[in-house]
TrEMBL record:
<dbReference type="InterPro" id="IPR000361">
    <property type="entry name" value="ATAP_core_dom"/>
</dbReference>
<dbReference type="InterPro" id="IPR050322">
    <property type="entry name" value="Fe-S_cluster_asmbl/transfer"/>
</dbReference>
<feature type="domain" description="Core">
    <location>
        <begin position="1"/>
        <end position="103"/>
    </location>
</feature>
<comment type="similarity">
    <text>Belongs to the HesB/IscA family.</text>
</comment>
<protein>
    <submittedName>
        <fullName>HesB/IscA family protein</fullName>
    </submittedName>
</protein>
<dbReference type="InterPro" id="IPR035903">
    <property type="entry name" value="HesB-like_dom_sf"/>
</dbReference>
<dbReference type="InterPro" id="IPR017870">
    <property type="entry name" value="FeS_cluster_insertion_CS"/>
</dbReference>
<dbReference type="InterPro" id="IPR016092">
    <property type="entry name" value="ATAP"/>
</dbReference>
<dbReference type="Pfam" id="PF01521">
    <property type="entry name" value="Fe-S_biosyn"/>
</dbReference>
Length: 110
């Protein structure tokens, strides 16, 4: 599994984990949503679930469920601040198209 956190995202996730010491790491995956099909889900992992693939980067464990893995493998997660807005950004090599609002995406396999 190759999920990579860019330096800004890594620091942001570390700050979330420091504020929630009971969390095991970052949970990353997808769910059906929006007009294109898939939306990213980013949250703190509080348990390891059956089928999770787990990797680690600079002390941060990243949990991805087995169904999401083929759709997000190879993704780089970054974190950007633009004015008052702050958000995670995703560079996913599996993405074939994105909806106009940027809420969801599709893959060639979908």
């Amino acid at each position: 599994m190759a999920i990579h956190l860019a330096p800004a995202a890594l620091e942001r996730v570390k700050s979330f984990l420091a504020a929630s010491p009971q969390a095991l790491g970052l949970r990353f995956g997808v769910e059906r949503t929006g007009c294109s099909g898939w939306g990213y889900v980013v949250d703190l992992a509080h348990e390891e679930r059956p089928g999770d693939q787990v990797s680690e980067q600079d002390g941060v464990r990243i949990y991805v469920d087995a169904d999401s893995l083929p759709l997000v493998d190879g993704t780089e997660i970054d974190f950007a601040r633009q004015g008052l807005n702050q958000q995670f950004q995703f560079r996913n090599p599996n993405m074939a198209a994105e909806c106009g609002c940027g809420e969801s995406f599709t893959t060639a396999a979908a």
